[in-house]
Design goal:
Elements lengths: L9 H14 L5 E6 L1 H7 L3 H9 L2 E4 L2 H9 L10 H9 L8 E6 L2 H14 L4 E6 L5 H14 L3 E5 L4 H8 L8 E4 L3 H6 L7 H5 L3 H8 L4 H4 L1 H11 L5
Parallel strand pairs: 1-2, 1-6, 3-4, 3-5, 5-6
Amino acid sequence: MGIPVPKLTMKETIALIDQVIDERRPELFHVVTLNPEITMSCQHDAQLRNIVEEAGLLTADGIGIVMVSQLKRNPLPERVTGCDLLLQLLQLEGTNARTYYLLGASKETNQLAAEEIERSYPGVKVIGRHHGFYSEAEEERIIGEIEGLSPDILVVALGAPRSERLIHRYKHKLNARVAIGVGGSLDIIAGTVKRAPAIWQKWNVEWLYRLLNQPSRWRRQLILPRFAFRALMYKDKS
């Protein structure tokens, strides 16, 4: 659908982000975990399309994107979801352990996630955090706090595409090395939402597990067949 996703494995993605942090680049490195919902929105939302095109890295967040790439005979190697990416980054140890700022989720979930990260990943430091239910008037103060703390990785869990818009809007002020929109990952880390068992993940039906446990998601899931049809019919005009 005209959006180039690099053919990187999870291991290669981690290595790239690690390198970016070590290089201390002056500009923010925005990682967009691209899912079918964002991809479809990009077809009619010019601002979001621009955000995606300007991102430092896109990853295939969703088996739908990987499957379409395979059917189009230009296969991506694997899923690199926001949740898995965050968990893999947290597992880096020693000199590669990073500082984090957590923005998003509810007040309770945000606190629980920060406590769980520092308990489970020795060496990782959550140097700041704020829940996602803040007023417009508070936003500038929160951005100023992030700027002052200068985290290695800014984790934004405000939901897509709100996370992507915020990162892009303040990319010159955040003073972080890397910023990633991670969807509901803080809920999973905090334990307030249960992730699909490993076997569901292995068979790439994590979306079905979420639907069965959260039937209210059915309207969102309707976008998957629409995405698949449109992506398979897409012809590059260049």
